[in-house]
Amino acid sequence: MRNDFGKTTKSQAILMMDEIDRDILRLLAGDARMSVAVMARKMKVARSTLQARLERLENSGVIAGYTLKLGEAARAGRIRASVLLNIEPRSQAAILSRLRAVPEVERIHTTSGRVDLLLEVAAPTTTALDAVLDRIGEIDGVKSSESLIHLSTKLDRAL
């Protein structure tokens, strides 16, 4: 599957993944520092095969990088919340620009359904979180917001 320029697009690369590619991603999700040699041994494939697969996954954008995933101990002492926003029509670009300037906003998702945006925010105290929520609610174009404070994480399979 190639585009007009002979290159595989990112969405095509995801569709072309096989069980070996999925095994690579599972191993890396468990330990992104695992060496190619160890991965090849675990998967019972040649090191050169694994290296070629990794390069293809990287070049196609399936693997965007190798990063640190923080555990609960690192997140301790931070109040985390999901914030559901309803916004005025045609105000999304301006609102996103303002939200990107709020350092406590860690992620912004567009959604389908009853809300327009889902934010993930973190603050050191409930007082600080309250101030962040006030700032978000005051942004022009925000019609309403609802916050859900995270009490604990029971499962995290995110890659």
From TrEMBL:
SUPFAM superfamilies named in the record: Dimeric alpha+beta barrel, Winged helix' DNA-binding domain
PANTHER family (UniProt xref): HTH-TYPE TRANSCRIPTIONAL REGULATOR LRPC, LEUCINE-RESPONSIVE REGULATORY PROTEIN
GO BP terms in the entry: response to amino acid
Domain spans labelled HTH asnC-type: 17-79
Annotated keywords: DNA-binding, Transcription, Transcription regulation
SMART domains registered for this protein in UniProt: HTH_ASNC
Database matches in Pfam families: AsnC_trans_reg, HTH_24
Protein name: Transcriptional regulator, AsnC family
InterPro entries listed in its UniProt record: AsnC-type_HTH_dom (IPR000485), Dimeric_a/b-barrel (IPR011008), Tscrpt_reg_AsnC-like (IPR019888), Tscrpt_reg_AsnC/Lrp_C (IPR019887), WH-like_DNA-bd_sf (IPR036388), WH_DNA-bd_sf (IPR036390)
GO MF annotations in UniProt: sequence-specific DNA binding
A single cellular component GO annotation: cytosol
Top-level taxonomic group: Bacteria
